[in-house]
Amino acid sequence: MDAIVTIGAESVVCPSCSGKTIGVESITLKSLVVPRSLERVRDTTYRYCSTKSCAIVYFAADDPTQSFLCDDLKIRVADKETSESFPICYCFDWTTDDVRRELRDTSETTIPGRIERLIRLGFCRCETMNPKGRCCLGDVTRTVKRLKSEPAE
Ligand SMILES: [Zn+2]
Fold first, then answer.
1. Distance 36 CA to ligand 1 centre (A)
2. Which letter does DSSP use for residue 43 in this model?
3. Positive or negative CA dihedral for 59, 63, 64, 66?
4. Interval 116-145: pLDDT, tens
5. Distance 53 CA to ligand 1 centre (A)
6. How much distance in Å is there from the Cα of 58 to the middle of ligand 1?
7. Ligand 1 center to 115 CA (angstroms)
8. Where does residue 150 fall: left (phi above 0), alpha (psi -120 to 50 degrees), or beta otherwise?
9. What domains, with CATH codes, occur in the chain?
10. What is the distance between the alpha carbons of residues 150 and 147, in angstroms, rounded to a whole number?
């Protein structure tokens, strides 16, 4: 059996786009899924698909036909956003617009440093706030780097 595609009977590639996925615990879905879709959430491991063009956000690892789409979530999923304005840090509510504004005003951004400081103080709640169920800092760093390389207006 190909270990990259499956772990036991559990699927780890997205059933819709065949992209790589990451594991997310049900606590994340219980926090972020809209009430009308909540009764479909089970106590199982879910997988998160980050492919922008793919409609699936989560699917159950043990039953890939059970999936949750953007409309099933209370928040906007940064990875699925087609606009240039989207959340980058869910715990502390920073967006790409906040970073752009700082870069425009001061050519620098304090946001990654501020996020790091609050993480050190133990204020982050990534498991229940971030759709990936994990720390945003890697994504924030990548996005800030990209925004810094954007031509100035
Ligand atoms: Zn997908």
1. 22
2. S
3. negative
4. 999 999 999 999 999 999 999 999 999 999
5. 8
6. 8
7. 29
8. beta
9. 6-72 (2.20.25.270), 78-148 (1.10.10)
10. 5
